[in-house]
Amino acid sequence: MAKQRILYVSPEIAPYLPASEIAQLGRDLPVAMHGKKYEVRTFMPNFGNVNERRNQLHEVIRLSGINIPIKDADHPLIIKVASMQPSRIQVYFIDNDDYFQKLEDDVDNVGTNRPDNDERVIFFSRGTVDTARKLRWEPDILHTSGWIAALVPLYVKKVFSDGVSFNGTKIVYSLLDETPADAIDPEFLKKLSEDGIKGNDLKDFLDLPANTNLLHKIGIANSDAVIFNNRTPDPELVEYVEKLGMPVLSLNPEEDNSDKYHQFYQSLLGNEA
What we know:
There is one protein chain. By secondary structure, the protein is α/β, with parallel strands linked by helices. The chain has a single domain, classed as 3-Layer(aba) Sandwich (Rossmann fold), CATH 3.40.50.2000. The protein has 8 helices and 11 strands. It starts with a strand and ends in a 5-residue tail after the last helix. It is globular and about 50 Å long. Helix 3 crosses helix 4 and helix 6 packs parallel to helix 7. The relative contact order is 0.14.
């Protein structure tokens, strides 16, 4: 029997970024599932404070080179890869000089204070899905975490739903104890509509405030299940998930939850763990 596959999309992964709870989870969860005999690959943004030389990142020419149009500009997509040690799990880095180079006024690893975070989310999410399709590596589970990856489910379900990729893939959306984006451009949904997202797929979000919870709600609405991996879940998002009637897993991020993740994945795939 072929091994089941999990594709993780994370905002931070140790040791590529300075130590944090989120970065450690980005490493520990894929490693734990690899230990449970899943095939695992991961994606993250190539933030400017990733030390490419020390971590032996190298560009994958065959995956790089396309332009992602946002608003009135084309932004080149650059893909780099490294191997997590000692598991040798492949980590793919989504890169672009406009969106992911470190700025002097960044307040954290992610740059939550940047005014263009909506465009960074669009670029990272679309770049991730486009690259995953090119890999021709079909995951059974696509597990996205954090607001930087909030649009990955939308692109899978609404833009790349051509039957070529992600057939039968279950999408899991995780909410973390992370700093929200300072601001989201009110023109955000318009930018999405210019990127091939149909108006009917955005109509439920038109009257919502342009903030991080808007990103989360779009991610949740296009996923198959939700994980609250945070100490104090946002009541607004809890209510939203309950309204949609989705499978939910609530976790304490201070515990080792690897068995619970495994059991949750198997329940979504219709198997007994």
